[in-house]
Amino acid sequence: xxxxxxxxxxxxxxxxxxxxxxxxxxxxxxxxxxxxxxxxxxxxxxxxxxxxxxxxxxxxxxxxxxxxxxxxxxxxxxxxxxxxxxxxxxxxxxxxxxxxxxxxxxxxxxxxxxxxxxxxxxxxxxxxxxxxxxxxxxxxxxxxxxxxxxxxxxxxxxxxxxxxxxxxxxxxxxxxxxxxxxxxxxxxxxxxxxxxxxxxxxxxxxxxxxxxxxxxxxxxxxxxxxxxxxxxxxxxxxxxxxxxxxxxxxxxxxxxxxxxxxxxxxxxxxxxxxxxxxxxxxxxxxxxxxxxxxxxxxxxxxxxxxxxxxxxxxxxxxxxxxxxxxxxxxxxxxxxxxxxxxxxxxxxxxxxxxxxxxxxxxxxxxxxxxxxxxxxxxxxxxxxxxxxxxxxxxxxxxxxxxxxxxxxxxxxxxxxxxxxxxxxxxxxxxxxxxxxxxxxxxxxxxxxxxxxxxxxxxxxxxxxxxxxxxx
Length: 471
Description:
single chain; Uridine Diphospho-n-acetylenolpyruvylglucosamine Reductase, domain 2; 2 domains; 4-stranded mixed beta sheet; two-stranded antiparallel ribbon; steroid 17-alpha-monooxygenase activity; iron ion binding; oxidoreductase
């Protein structure tokens, strides 16, 4: 028979086992099993964001998967993303040592660089320069956007008689805005070989990267399919040659008393910070000049893709298109739209927000990594863990968005007909935390001015032609 001492020891043993089980569950977030060597990769198929959203229904808004050689956590709600990227920003702002990150300026670039004191200074310099030359308060910024918006509208009007694909012209026009802000507004971009080469190389890189780089998560593949790694390096080097040529041209004509654009701003910053590298976190000329490549690479695709989605949705939902047109007619009339009109066209702005929600152009952001061991919601996350933010999943959260699969711009309006700022803040279009996109204000200006300009100048003509055709 058991005596009191034996019973006590047995109870202690049972409770210890339970405690160990609970502790183990807290070490690693729950998640699905994967396969040897490749992990969960084969199960993603063609739509990883949607698959992650489905997995979140089973495992919660923080779950763990194995991506090839890398243990990975996926954050699937706005709350989880903010808890990591904002509340523990220093811990969750690193980048994984992927092959693609390493070859981009040896992990010292703004977009793919390791998170440390040098990167924080680099980020501060980049944001300051961009704000200096692209601020909404600078008339040149609005002038550049309006000029390109008018060119795009003219292209639409010239092709209203037959069906056409606007993709190339939208990409060219939106990209031209960023290029002129960075390299000078006196550029005739459509006849600028440097710009056209940059456009070509950027599209090549996007197409290559869009297909995914399996070498990032399975580094041993470099020895199995070396051509994949070689091709990535070749494309990157071509892009670097383009931006190096731009910087060289600006250095030759640089005048400290007359800073013309972002490239000049970076040259000025290099002279300020690189003369005393020990004092300034060992930041180098190469680090600062590489910022131009980050700005140009990030500024081309996201805004142009969003504008394409807006045009696609409004082509499908004629009643929403007509409502936007009535708002523009009643508020702006025949005068030219300006940045001062932001806030005066709430339904138009709500349509932009709804497009960004239902069709996020960056459904899963650039991978983050943890810089040290940490705890997130009682789960232990080891240093070097890859962190994926499923922004697509946040836009399909039925607790936040009623009927999330339906395109409804009015969801962003409050009872008074103005933008519901609290709901707008639920969107993480431009990321969160220290790695948030520094050029978000440019994208907002572009989308507003491009959309209103297109509708104001082309809608009525299209309607008139449709009426004439019916007659």
